Amino acid sequence: YHKQLQSLEQERVQLLDMQENVEALEQWEVSAEKLKRLRHSAFFAGIVKDISVLKQKLRRLDYDLKKVEKKDGYFVLVLVQKTDQEKAAAAAIEAGLSHVSLEQYIGVSASQVKQKINGCEQEIGAVTKALDKMRQEKTFILDHEILLEEEVKKAELPLQFASTAQVFIATGYVPTKELEIVKKKLTSVAKG
Q: Which stretch of DSSP H or E encloses residue 6?
């Protein structure tokens, strides 16, 4: 269950990131399908930590920049003339842009991603509940294991004694202080 929970948590984080990006594209009124059909323009999308560095690297080009702030920087979409595509790509690399492929967003809406997130969160809840139940059962089992060990010792105690029709043998430890008392009791029980 632990591996399944980790996998679901990773999927949830990826879906949340995807949701942010899809919402940004929807906010900009840009679709991945439309971008693929551009003839005279080129685009690239990605994450950049410092937006000012990217702007500085692109300053000599005619570009359109869309951005949305995220916890790890900015999700950006840069549109340039097709003739400036190589220069813009080099400038983006110099600015430390981590490329994000928009292929995964074709035909995807923020509401669809939200549904996937909700499903993932429900699965996380179910797995967490199962883990909690296992922890409770583990505690129950460990608590009762001690009691069972004591019962087994009690059940095995008679096996430590050997007897025949005429001989009864017992082995064990008797403290020196109590030796005389035990001898007297055994003598009286054994009748001599």
A: helix 2-27
Over the stretch 111-121, which tens digit does the pLDDT of each residue have?
999 999 999 99
pTM above 0.85, yes or no: no
DSSP string, 7-76: HHHHHHHHHHHHHHHHHHHHHTT--HHHHHT-SSEEEEEEEES-HHHHHHHHTTS-EEEEEEEETTEEEE
**3-state SS, residue 173:** coil
Q: What is the DSSP string of 82-126?
A: GGGHHHHHHHHHHTT-EE--GGGGTT--HHHHHHHHHHHHHHHHH
Q: What are phi and psi of 71, to 5 degrees?
A: -65, -25
